[in-house]
């Protein structure tokens, strides 16, 4: 079975330390404390993988997130000067760098990127506009002016394989590489379940009604901090009414076309399949393995 | 089968109108436009259910969220003066009022409460501290000082039934009613899948390792805006090491005890089961129906 990318980190998140300022300070002062070095929010790699340094040169008031214990040693990441809301599809260099990481490193980078980026974009209190400061080892920010407490965001996204008579519905977003198709997806909104999100998104984007939604798998997607929730469903309606303000195209693919694309990757004839780091790639592999 | 509370709203969310200011203004001006009337963030009920009024008396610059079309008529909710971060367990009156709603109304109230509360707590830009204003019919807020765009939060929470030799592990939070027990739960963090969140939370709270996590069902929980993701897993370890900073107690319950509690509700002898509006109630019903 394929691997779910951005899962399988080898950190002990050691949440008991987060809430204890003394214990946290002691972790930071330890000789074996380490820093995951990012270039802004990009991964920085050497011949061994992600660059990890000691904490020398890090001032006491530098905002660090405590990621947890790795091989028993405390690991931190620094809050960068600027956040980043660009779409992952525009981060070609990042995506290529990610392919060089082993699965546990990729997962560690993903979580670190999400939380560091969140800090950089939440230096002010949404409630009162005051300054916020890092708290709980980087798993919270508190307002310095009001009682506001703020927590890292994780945005659940429903992503779905929709099937009709053995064919699969996929679409392509604006600005995607030529001939690239993937599973339809969208943010789950307040007031709906995962399954209701699947049905609404597909109806909005291509005008068909989905039934019998089931869950496949989940993985994080750190651009900036999505929880991708992979689902499968059926539709009895093949006729698409595409909302071109949301997507660039959508169409049906045969099982043979999906198999060919997954076999040949970016050299495929039928369509360019999603990157292996995307949960859509895992879902297509899963689907091809079903009866 | 039990119903998943807060699901099954009967709104067409009509997202195409959100992004179109003219269409949105026309919706607001329609004679059949209606307002879901909240008392702050509490539901307001009359003999028919939720109180719905016309828009007379609502000024043009009042912040309204466009919830969508209900029976063809546009429905709005007003952003209240104050948000609310109290825990649902402290909102006894709200919980009792909710029990009087039919399922579609409950779901409509839940979504409206979450998004209205989010607006009230996000009048400032987390990026720069500037004022934000409502956009896209209430499904976005934009900063008036920088390029910041902000979207309603939905916080995914993993909630899990953990099983060992046919018994079920449940816990109770601080401040819960006497003898009340429910499934363990916790927020999914950046950098982990649903399944990894389940394993981490159980390990943190009671010190046992969970394997073979599977998905059961999901529902929203609008206090303030969680997506509850119900899972099941097994553990080979019955010995609990409880983190009393996080929970007040946890213990194993036999199938007979769970059945008795679900049968007798708050008059049960074994323990007080979760409210029917909680996904934990659905999950326990589901579990009792398994072989």
UniProtKB/TrEMBL annotation, chains A, B:
InterPro entries noted in UniProt: NAD-cap_RNA_hydrolase_NudC (IPR050241), NADH_PPase-like_N (IPR015375), NudC-like_C (IPR049734), NUDIX_hydrolase-like_dom_sf (IPR015797), NUDIX_hydrolase_CS (IPR020084), NUDIX_hydrolase_dom (IPR000086), Znr_NADH_PPase (IPR015376)
Family to which the UniProt record says this protein belongs: Belongs to the Nudix hydrolase family. NudC subfamily.
Protein's name according to its UniProt entry: NAD(+) diphosphatase
Coiled-coil region(s): none
GO-annotated molecular function: hydrolase activity
CDD domains (alphabetical): NUDIX_NADH_pyrophosphatase_Nudt13
Superkingdom, taxonomy of origin: Bacteria
Gene3D superfamilies named among the record's database cross-references: 3.90.79.20, Nucleoside Triphosphate Pyrophosphohydrolase
Residue ranges annotated for the Nudix hydrolase domain, each copy included: 152-275
